Amino acid sequence: MTWLGAVPAWCWWLIALVVVAGGQQYRVVLAQGETAEARTELADYRLVIAENSRRAAAQARAEEQRRQKVADEESEHARKKLEEVTSRATAAESAAGGLRGEIARLRAGHRATCDTIATQQRQAGTAAVVVLGGLLEESDRMAGSCAAALERSRIAGLACEATYNGLSIKERNRSEQSLR
Q1: Torsions phi, psi of 118, nearest 5?
Q2: Are 140 and 96 in contact (CB under 8 A)?
Q3: What is the spatial distance between Cα 96 and Cα 59, in angstroms, rounded to a whole number?
Q4: Angle at which helices 119-179 and 9-113 cross, to 10°
Q5: Cα–Cα nearest to 77, from 147, 151, 158
Q6: Backbone phi, then psi, for 7, in 5-degree steps?
Q7: How remote is the C-alpha of 62 from its chain's centroid?
Q8: What are the two backbone dihedrals, phi and then psi, of residue 2, each rounded to the nearest 5 degrees?
Q9: At 2, is the secondary structure helix, strand, or coil?
Q10: What are the counts of helices (DSSP H) followed by strands (DSSP E) for the chain?
């Protein structure tokens, strides 16, 4: 008999059980280590994602504020131009009112001086002055209102264009930088 035969069978089973249990325990310890490492990596990944999200939100806020600033500046510029145009239109209307008064004075003067001229000549001359004076008044009034409307629309269009250019230049610069 060899010494192996001296060891009872139940001991062999116990030894096999201890070896298998030890192997399983070793695998469990390795799995726990891998799990802890995976949790650490996951926590690190979540931190990176949170930081990237925070940066993206900050960039979006900064871009929104920049765009709003550009739009506000252009709006203020357009408002000032419209106020200037309105004051010029008011001054032009005042001057036109003075011209209308002068036309009325000339009409009255024409009537007074034409009393000495023959009736037929006076009627023809008065009619021509009245018609021409009325046409001049009406064309002056229309020209003033058209000029004011055109100036307002020009300023609004320039403000819109400047706002668009202010926003699109930054966008082009950013896209060019991202391509590099």
Answers
A1: -55, 150
A2: yes
A3: 55
A4: 160
A5: 158
A6: -85, 125
A7: 13
A8: -95, 170
A9: coil
A10: 3, 0
Q: What is the DSSP letter of 117?
A: S
157-179 pLDDT per residue, tens: 888 888 888 777 766 666 666 66
Q: Which two tokens stand for residue 49?
A: 């994602």
Instruction: Provide the residue-wise pLDDT of the chain in tens; the chain has 180 residues.
Output: 576 777 788 888 999 999 999 999 999 999 999 999 999 999 999 999 999 999 999 999 998 898 888 888 888 888 898 888 888 878 877 877 777 777 777 767 666 665 555 555 555 556 666 777 777 777 877 887 888 788 888 888 888 888 888 777 766 666 666 665
Specify the pTM.
0.50
Q: What is the DSSP letter of 180?
A: -
Q: Both tokens of residue 179? A: 């391509």
Counting every residue written for the chain, the total comes to 180
Q: What is the number of other CB atoms lying within 10 angstroms of the CB of residue 163?
A: 19
Tell which residue, 74, 73, 87, has the closest CA to residue 156. Answer: 74
Contacts of the segment 77-83: beta carbons below 8 A, 24+ positions apart: 77/159, 77/162, 78/155, 78/156, 78/158, 78/159, 81/155, 81/158, 81/159, 82/152, 82/155
